[in-house]
Amino acid sequence: MAEQEKLLVPIDEYLKAGIHIGTKFKTRYMDSFIYKARADGLFVLNLQKIDERIDIAASMLARYAPEDIIVSSRRENSWKAVKAFGDATGIRIFPGRYPPGILTNPALEKFIEIKLMMVTDTWPDRNAVKDALMVGIPVIALCDTNNQTNNIDLVIPCNNKGKKALGLLFWILAKEYLKRRGLPEKDLKLEDFVED
Question: What is the pTM of this model?
Answer without folding.
Answer: 0.94
